[in-house]
Amino acid sequence: MRQILLFLLLAGGPFLWGQEGIPIGKGLDAKPLTSKQLKEVFLGNRSIWNNGNPVTVVLTSSHSEGFAKTAEWALNADAFDYQKHWLSLVFQGRTNAPVFLSTEQAVIDYVQNHDGAIGLLFEAKPPEELVVSLQ
Length: 135
What we know:
The chain is of the alpha/beta class. Helix 4 packs across helix 5 (79-91). It has a single domain (2-130), classed as Periplasmic binding protein-like II (D-Maltodextrin-Binding Protein, domain 2, 3-Layer(aba) Sandwich). The two termini are 18 Å apart. It has helices at 2-11, 13-17, 35-42, 65-75, 79-91, 104-112; strands at residues 22-26, 56-60, 99-101, 117-121. The chain contains 6 helices and 4 strands; from the N terminus they run ααβαβααβαβ. Strands 1-4-2-3 form a 4-stranded mixed β-sheet, with helices on both faces. It is 41% helix and 13% strand.
């Protein structure tokens, strides 16, 4: 049964997740996140996971389609407004800036090598061990 669910997730990921993307992470909380908690992370409202690891949001570049999709999902805004949102948080000292990378494969590579890192994939196929469980 687990293999069937994994196959459906990987094969039908974009269809099943729609605009939300597939969240990936390493060294996050042991418990699954709710959709609300996931959105709060991508809005910069969380800086430390319950296990003590710092939250590192990893996004594709601000000119990418994935960034625009993340902006629409997280803030219900366009990429420009999402970028302004993050700049405001960073300049107020409320959170650290996200890590911006050029491709979704670069996002996968970064997350694999950094505890506390979390990203969203819209096109790339995520490694099974990085897919974040949601409630």
